[in-house]
Amino acid sequence: MAAPSTSDPHRPGATGPILLAAGLVLAAVLVFWPGIATYDSVVQYAQPLSGRYDDWHPPVMARLWSLTLRLISGAGPLLALQMAGYGLGLGLIAGRMRRLGRPRAALAVMLIGLWPPFLGWQAVVLKDAQMLGAMLAAVGVVGWWRLRALRVPGWAWVLVAVLLGYATMIIGGLYLIATAKGRRQRVVPIAGDVSVA
């Protein structure tokens, strides 16, 4: 079966939902700036400020935070990052659905993303919101091609691997490796990477 044409002039464009998602992300970042900080957020923020890291919070997130602190202090840059992943994933899925002639499905995707329990938690600067943003962006990238039965290009798989790698490190994939032998080891962030010492 041949793949459907990508240049059908009668199909509605994907640009609308993608631009809408970008606008909603920008609005959410402005409304929630610099992000909602919980106790965990504050404790983790202290790590890049002090330069002393532990493995209670994801070291990769603490390292990323230490890099963003060179540009802007506070949680704002991480809020923007997790909202960007959230919006990218929703926008790509909704855009593809619209392009497939399914405007109600596209609208449903956007409305689910705007549902206050989801959007509100995405404004909290935590590892869970970072993971969700990265994973939803990865799903959106793959869905952009696969929902149309098209092959995902190599560069997109690299992007998906980076996003899923970050999500895995954020949620504790390295902790499983570090404790696999039945004894706790120390996880140390170095030069933008994480290694087990």
Short description:
It is built from 9 helices and 2 strands, in the order H-H-H-H-H-H-H-H-H-E-E. The protein is mostly helical.
Look at the structure and give the mean pLDDT: 79
Give me the strand/helix succession. Answer: HHHHHHHHHEE
Largest sheet: 2 strands, antiparallel
Structural class call reads mainly alpha
Strand order of the largest sheet: 1-2
The whole-angstrom Rg is 19 Å
Number of domains: 1
Number of helices: 9
Distance between the termini: 52 Å
Share of residues in helices: 55-70%
Please state roughly what percent of the residues sit in beta strands, choosing from under 5%, 5-15%, 15-25%, 25-35%, 35-45% or over 45%: under 5%
Shape: globular
> Spans with pLDDT under 50 lasting ≥5 residues?
1-10, 175-183, 187-197
**Count of strand segments:** 2
Describe the structure.
The chain is mainly α and 197 residues long. The protein has one domain (15-196). It is built from nine helices and two strands; from the N terminus they run αααααααααββ. It has a two-stranded antiparallel ribbon. Strand 1 and strand 2 (193-196) form a beta hairpin. Helix 1 runs antiparallel to helix 4, helix 4 (76-99) runs antiparallel to helix 5 (103-114) and helix 4 (76-99) packs parallel to helix 7. The longest helix has 24 residues, at 76-99. The radius of gyration is 19 Å and the shape is globular. Mean pLDDT is 79; it is low at 1-10, 175-183 and 187-197.
Map the helices and strands.
Elements: H1 15-32, H2 39-50, H3 59-68, H4 76-99, H5 103-114, H6 116-122, H7 127-146, H8 154-171, H9 173-178, E1 187-190, E2 193-196
Antiparallel strand pairs: 1-2
Helix pairs in contact: 1-4, 2-3, 4-5, 4-7, 7-8
